């Protein structure tokens, strides 16, 4: 009888030891790259990840971060990540949180459209925490408060800057229009057969110059709507030239009531599917150039 009890105790002890070893092995596996990937997929399947971490892998990801009436757009390719504008100083923490969630510890570049605070306000804080190989802007934009050793590249209309297969084709400004908005850096992101037209905060005069210079070559799959959807931009002529399938608007609560109803109507009249951060939250455009999928933070 005593041997039976001892055997039962030994058996239970062996089971507990085996279970402990199994748990330790499982914990160790979770810290390996395959283990982390498996854990991430499990949390993604259960809907337990933040939106930025829940996105599937893609050749190109264009993530319009929800920073209110400001701009901050993260562009990811296999060759690295580029940040287009940096939102306000108050929203820098939002941008940094997304960079952390996307596991981005260094940027290939930060592209700054112009020096208004809702586009450049978060730049200094972001660069101190996530360094960039270069900051890119136009000759008509002056940047201050950068780290002393920060490389700054000035680009002009007609130049192309490439990061792997992702090409940033600079279209404007071609001349000084004496307005920070009108002097916004305009460029087309081209990745294989997919393209996005980034327009900063351009208004009527800069739009007309773009149309005169480029016409139908402005055509793109996605339009980053100028100036948060103001009434002074996104003309019928621009939409006829670009012919986008999708339009994204970075917007939030604002005394100017952006995006304006007349701008939204023009987009709708052209049959363009509209995504806006004030309704959709973060907007992620994923493509391998053959197929494009759009995910939104709020699921709308």
Automatic annotation (TrEMBL):
UniProt source species: Hominenteromicrobium mulieris
Gene3D superfamilies registered for this protein in UniProt: Ribonuclease Z/Hydroxyacylglutathione hydrolase-like
Entries under InterPro entries matching the protein: ComA-like_MBL (IPR035681), Competence_DNA_uptake (IPR052159), Metallo-B-lactamas (IPR001279), RibonucZ/Hydroxyglut_hydro (IPR036866)
Domain annotation Metallo-beta-lactamase: ranges: 59-253
Pfam families to which the protein is assigned, alphabetical: Lactamase_B
Protein name according to UniProt: MBL fold metallo-hydrolase
